[in-house]
Design a protein that fits this description.
The protein has 282 residues and is of the alpha/beta class. It folds into 3 domains: 115 residues, Cobalt-precorrin-4 Transmethylase, domain 1, CATH 3.40.1010.10; 106 residues, Methyltransferase, Cobalt-precorrin-4 Transmethylase, Domain 2; 51 residues. It is 41% helix and 17% strand. It has a 5-stranded parallel β-sheet, sandwiched between helices. A 5-stranded mixed β-sheet has the order 6-7-10-8-9, with helices on one face. Strand 2, helix 2 and strand 3 form a beta-alpha-beta unit. The radius of gyration is 24 Å and the shape is elongated. The protein starts with 9 loop residues before the first strand and ends with a helix. Its EC number is 2.1.1.198. Keywords: Cytoplasm, Methyltransferase, rRNA processing, S-adenosyl-L-methionine, Transferase. Catalyzes the 2'-O-methylation of the ribose of cytidine 1402 (C1402) in 16S rRNA.
């Protein structure tokens, strides 16, 4: 790789999720030719380079706690003619990992940013899950607080999209339970140890979750499919029955909505009210 100022750039390089054979020849060439490499964990990056016989330049730690502080110095070095590679611990940088602010700053500073595509955990999981691959929304890591988690799911409650996110093994069960309460019954898939020896895909439905949490290892990619049209039709009939029952009891519309929402998982107050208006107009 030429190291003249005119060819200097920030190279955003995807690295293996687990199987070293997934590093592309182009990625190896770029990493070998850069003056310095930004990595979340320099020890992990150093071990990767050693195993792949890559003689990279200077390794610098780059994570969420020092990104703002380091990005200006990084940009200065690139503008001075050096080449810099940005990697994450595994997979494609920026995808729920640090780097966005650096890339944005480089773009705004007129610095060339070059993507070197390759492994990406949520894309790999999505393609092998058997669930609809598009449209999909990647949510990264979800909030830990129950109220904030519920809010995230509610934002996607009415969208016919597949949802993809990362979760830790000790939180998977509670997160799927919350998804069921907010989104209703949908198919899901858990992908773990992607590209590694014990790669596993666990499929099911949110109303029937049977997980052996002791056997789960590592970071898990969770995929929740969109609502099934047949389920929606069936649910609509059940919701109509609930609305009719509460109306016959003499409840006010707002009270009907409140009571139906307690029993109709995945239904928003707006949709329940619209269905109630339709029933009352007949």
């Amino acid at each position: 790789m030429s190291k003249t100022p005119s060819s200097s750039a920030l190279w955003v390089v995807a690295t293996p999720l687990g199987n070293p054979g997934d590093l592309s020849p182009r990625a190896a060439e770029v990493l070998s030719g850069c003056d310095f490499v930004l990595a979340e964990d320099t020890r992990r990056a150093g071990l990767l380079f050693k195993n792949l016989d890559i003689k990279a330049g200077e390794l610098l730690s780059f994570h969420e706690h020092n990104e703002e502080k380091r990005m200006h110095r990084v940009a200065d070095r690139i503008q001075a003619g050096e080449n810099c590679a940005l990697i994450s611990d595994a997979g494609t940088p920026l995808m729920a990992d640090p780097g966005y602010r650096l890339v944005r700053h480089c773009r705004e500073s007129g610095i060339r940013v070059v993507p070197i595509p390759g492994p990406c955990s949520f894309v790999a999981a999505l393609t092998a899950s058997g669930l609809p691959p598009y449209p999909f929304a990647f949510l990264g890591f979800l909030p830990r607080k129950p109220a904030e988690l519920e809010k995230v799911f509610k934002n996607w409650q009415e969208m016919p999209a597949t949802l993809v996110f990362f979760e830790r093994k000790n939180r998977v069960q509670s997160t799927l339970d919350k998804a069921y309460r907010v989104l209703g019954n949908r198919e899901f898939c858990l992908a773990r140890e992607l590209t590694k020896t014990f790669e596993e895909f666990i499929r099911g439905r949110l109303d029937r979750i049977e997980l052996d949490q002791d056997s789960l290892r590592g970071e898990i990619t969770v995929i929740i499919g969109p609502p099934d049209p047949a389920d929606l039709t069936k649910d609509a009939e059940n919701v109509k029955d609930l609305i009719t029952r509460y109306l016959e009891q003499g409840l006010l519309p707002r009270d009907v909505v409140r009571e139906v929402r307690k029993e109709a998982k995945g239904w928003s107050g707006k949709d329940i009210y619209a269905l109630m208006q339709d029933i009352r107009s007949r």
